[in-house]
């Protein structure tokens, strides 16, 4: 059973969803800040970032495992309060071990908020459209965040990022308290009976395959994105010019979810996904093999733009094939695992063979995603 969404509900869902991404969005800022402030090696900061993403994954899995009896609105509020307190504690902590623990707890809280959001949207009418609207709100939030926070780091250092993260969680918690929709609990045994028949592909397994596909997609996209500054440098751009390209891209990124809203499901769900992954793979390969300024500018804009177009369809597909809502709740965790693994694996690849090696290497995660989506396209759903 699905439920209509009011604009107030969608605003609340978008704010909570955006707050859940604030840690991943600002990752380069706070990882670099940790390296500078504590004079530690990059791999230590990277490990702390990995713990944060593990916390997000754990939060989404926790809600997924108890979704039948859990009030998603209350879970979102509790998670955001946990995240706010955890990040606020980081501001006053000088011990790196305690910071790692606090960030892991914060990730757990953000994971609960993200999972509550995706699980709620999966039970609404026009799932793909609503996910597109939520990603539109995410893009607006990203523009505001990067227009304000990096400049404040010059005066307040690392604490500027953590204050912004805590404040975002606080505002999202209030918004969730006021506007987050209450939806009836959907029991796992309400999936259509024919999906549980012997001899047929289980809807649950289709959803799990889709979860791995979206994780592979995020590994490829974020692996590429983590070295976008290096590619700009190779193409002769200084850091200020790279910043201008990325800021322009942030505004153009609005077109991604808007296009997903406009196109909707007139071509189905699977065709936009597969086309997006193929385009993103091609753009990623060109970025690391053809060092021309125009290619860098187009690629730096196209990589996030394509992702923002594709992800609403990916989440919509998961909601379509899993009627329990559990897979939708798990989706943010799988996405964040991809977000964490992408830069780590890309870093290992670049260390082993230089930037040029990353071009052919992206065929692995993107290729895995394409193969899974082709398989899903042939599945019964």
Automatic annotation (TrEMBL):
GO cellular component, one term: plasma membrane
Topology in membrane: Multi-pass membrane protein
Chief subcellular location: membrane
Gene Ontology molecular-function annotations: transmembrane transporter activity
Limits of the Major facilitator superfamily (MFS) profile domain: 7-381
Transmembrane parts of this sequence: 12-31, 43-63, 75-93, 99-121, 133-154, 160-180, 201-220, 242-262, 269-288, 294-315, 327-346, 352-376
InterPro entries: MFS, MFS_dom, MFS_Efflux_Transporters, MFS_trans_sf
Compartment(s): Cell membrane
Classification via Gene3D superfamilies: MFS general substrate transporter like domains
SUPFAM superfamilies membership: MFS general substrate transporter
Keyword terms, alphabetized: Cell membrane, Membrane, Transmembrane, Transmembrane helix
Pfam families cross-referenced by the UniProt entry: MFS_1
Name of the protein in question: Major facilitator superfamily (MFS) profile domain-containing protein
Organism of provenance: hydrothermal vent metagenome
Lineage: unclassified sequences, metagenomes, ecological metagenomes
